[in-house]
Design a protein that fits this description.
The complex is a heterodimer of chains A (about 150) and B (about 80). Chain A is built from four helices and four strands; from the N terminus they run E-E-H-E-E-H-H-H. Chain A is α+β, with helices and mostly antiparallel strands and about 150 residues long. A four-stranded antiparallel beta sheet of chain A has the order 1-2-4-3, covered by helices on one side. Chain B has about 80 residues and is of the alpha+beta class. Chain B has one domain: Alpha-Beta Plaits (2-Layer Sandwich), CATH 3.30.70. Chain B contains two helices and three strands; from the N terminus they run E-H-E-E-H. Chain B has a three-stranded antiparallel beta sheet with strand order 1-3-2, covered by helices on one side. In chain B, helix 1 crosses helix 2. The longest helix of chain B is centred in the last third of the chain and has 18 residues. The chains are: A alpha+beta (about 150), B alpha+beta (about 80). At the A-B interface, helix 1, strand 3 and strand 4 of A face strand 1 and helix 2 of B.
Chain lengths: ~150, ~80
C-alpha cells in the first residue's frame, strides 16, 4: 500500500506503544502539536520527522492490549482532524474574534464610543412606550408554564 | 524508536529541531533538574539530550515525562509566538 495520509507503522502491545506516520502536507505542525497535547496525560509522546512525513511515537502510560492501542491510533487521527478544523475556523474568524475582543476590552475600560464602538451605553434596551417591545405582552405564550398543574395558578 | 525510557541510570534522547524548540527543552530540563542531569546539544537535524544521574526512587518514567514536558513547552511557546 502506498504511504499517503496517515498510517500505523508499528504497534506493539508488549510495550503498549505504536508509531504513526503522517503526511506533512496534510497536517500543519500546529495541528500536530495540538493533537499530541491532548494525549500527554495518557501517553508518552515523541514527535519526529522523516521527510516527507511526521512520525508520532506513542507509548501508553498503562498497559494496553492490541485493540485498545489501535483505538488510540484512531483517536489520535480523529484528534488531528478535529484540531485541523478548529485551526481553519480560527483562521477564518480571526478578524471577527479580534474585533469582538477589542470592543469588549474598550467597553470594560469605559471608552466604547471613543474607540469606534457601537455607542449603546445609556440607550434603553426596551422601549416602555411600545407594547410590542419587551416581554410583558408575551403573544407567543412563552412565559406560560408548560406543566398542567402550574398553568391554572399563573 | 519509542519514547525513551528511563529504566537505566542514563539515557540519550534525540528531538528533531524542526519540531522541538531549544528553549522548551531547557525549560523542561530545569523542571526535572531535581530528578536527573541534562546536557543539551545540537547535532545535525536533532537536539541530543544526554540524561544522567536519573533518580531511581521516583514513581514514573523520568525520561519519558521529560519528553512530554519538552513537547508541551514547545507547543505553548509556538502558540505564544516565541519560536
Amino acid at each position: 500500500m502506498a504511504m499517503t495520509r496517515s498510517q500505523i507503522e508499528t504497534l506493539d502491545p508488549a510495550t503498549s506503544s505504536l508509531t504513526l506516520s503522517l503526511d506533512i502536507g496534510l497536517y500543519p505542525r500546529d495541528v500536530l502539536y495540538a493533537a499530541a497535547y491532548v494525549f500527554l496525560d495518557r501517553a508518552y509522546v515523541l514527535l519526529d520527522r522523516q521527510d516527507p512525513r511526521f512520525v508520532v511515537h506513542l507509548r501508553a502510560k498503562r498497559p494496553l492490549d492490541e485493540a485498545t492501542l489501535q483505538a488510540m491510533a484512531g483517536e489520535f487521527e480523529n484528534e488531528l482532524l478535529a484540531q485541523a478544523l478548529r485551526h481553519q475556523v480560527v483562521d477564518a474568524n480571526q478578524r471577527i474574534i479580534e474585533d469582538v475582543v477589542a470592543v469588549a476590552i474598550a467597553g470594560a475600560a469605559g471608552d466604547v464610543e471613543e474607540s469606534g464602538g457601537a455607542g449603546l451605553e445609556g440607550a434603553p434596551l426596551i422601549d416602555p412606550a411600545d407594547p410590542e417591545d419587551g416581554f410583558v405582552a408575551d403573544p407567543q405564550g412563552i412565559a406560560r408554564p408548560w406543566e398542567p398543574e402550574k398553568q391554572g395558578s399563573e | 524508536m519509542t519514547p525513551p525510557s528511563g529504566d537505566t541510570d542514563a539515557a540519550t534522547i534525540r528531538l528533531h529541531r524542526a519540531l522541538y524548540v531549544e528553549e522548551a527543552i531547557t525549560e523542561a530540563a530545569a523542571t526535572f533538574a531535581g530528578l536527573a542531569s541534562f546536557a543539551v546539544r545540537a547535532d545535525g537535524e536533532h537536539y541530543i539530550i544526554d540524561v544522567t544521574d536519573i533518580a531511581r526512587d521516583v514513581d514514573g518514567d523520568v525520561v519519558a515525562e521529560f519528553c512530554n514536558f519538552a513537547l508541551a513547552n514547545t507547543a505553548r511557546l509556538q502558540r505564544s509566538g516565541h519560536a
